Amino acid sequence: MSLTDTAITKIRGMIVSGELRPGDRLPREADLADRLGLSRNSLREAVRALSLIRVLDVRQGDGTYVTSLEPSVLLEAMGFIVDLHRDDSLLQFFEVRRILESAAASLAAQSATEAQIADLAALLDDLGEQPSVDELLANDLEFHRRVAAVSGNEVLVSLIETVSSRTQRARIWRGLTENGAVRRTIAEHRAILDAIGAGRADLASAAMTMHVAGVESWLRTQAQLDDGDG
């Protein structure tokens, strides 16, 4: 283990043990390095690494603080990793999205309040009967975001938002090229909402699975056609 890795492990230990809590300011560099038995250079490298993954927040002229450690903050770094993936991994993102979103729909059906169900219904009603592809996509992204939020699981919300961003281009592509994609998406959203409103976790999960799998299946077909052309 490198000296920097050792420093990271020791700082992580302070956070895990509760010695450093969200929002706490780290001791002065010289004091912390001496206390942990580290060189100031190793400590500095560790702080830099932990700030990149949003565990620490380095404020110029003020000090270094532990972030809120909220899932949405810690998973921001994952979004960067997702963006670096190649197009040939897109189907894998859809597979993961299908699993995560079906779980979110199931949880939402178990915990949704009348106000939350009314909010989802109002969102779908705002779309109108013949939306453009851009309008549909914006509504689609917001619908999925709100369903995830209703699940009450913040980690799940952050994971879905991260993975969903990687599939956005394919969803636009399908909406522009596949006959009936807009109408089908609207109907599928209604089915998901109906299941959540009825408190049917099994139906909500199944409806969401079919919805996400529809885009996934279409994308697989396109990939096969492209391979055939080649």
Could you list some keywords that capture this structure?
Four Helix Bundle (Hemerythrin (Met), subunit A), two-stranded antiparallel ribbon, Arc Repressor Mutant, subunit A, 12 helices, mainly alpha, single chain, 2 domains, 3% strand, 230 residues, HTH-type transcriptional regulator LutR
Walk me through what this model shows.
The protein is mainly alpha-helical and 230 residues long. The chain has two domains: 3-69, Arc Repressor Mutant, subunit A (Orthogonal Bundle); 74-229, Four Helix Bundle (Hemerythrin (Met), subunit A), CATH 1.20.120.530. 73% of the residues lie in helices and 3% in strands. The protein has twelve helices and two strands, in the order H-H-H-E-E-H-H-H-H-H-H-H-H-H. Strands 1-2 form a two-stranded antiparallel sheet. Strand 1 and strand 2 (63-66) form a beta hairpin. Helix 2 (29-36) packs across helix 3 (40-52) and helix 5 (76-83) packs parallel to helix 9 (154-166).
Domain unit count: 2
Number of strands: 2
CATH topology of the largest domain, what is it called?
Answer: Four Helix Bundle (Hemerythrin (Met), subunit A)
Mean pLDDT: 84
Relative strand content: under 5%
For the record, the CATH class of the largest domain is Mainly Alpha
CATH architectural category of the largest domain:
Up-down Bundle
Coarse structural class: mainly alpha
Count of alpha and pi helical runs: 12
H and E string = HHHEEHHHHHHHHH
> Unreliable runs, pLDDT <50, ≥5 residues?
none
| Dominant shape | elongated
The helix fraction, in percent, is over 70%
- End-to-end separation: 47 Å
Protein name: HTH-type transcriptional regulator LutR
GO molecular function: DNA binding; DNA-binding transcription factor activity
Keywords: DNA-binding, Transcription, Transcription regulation
Pfam families: FCD, GntR
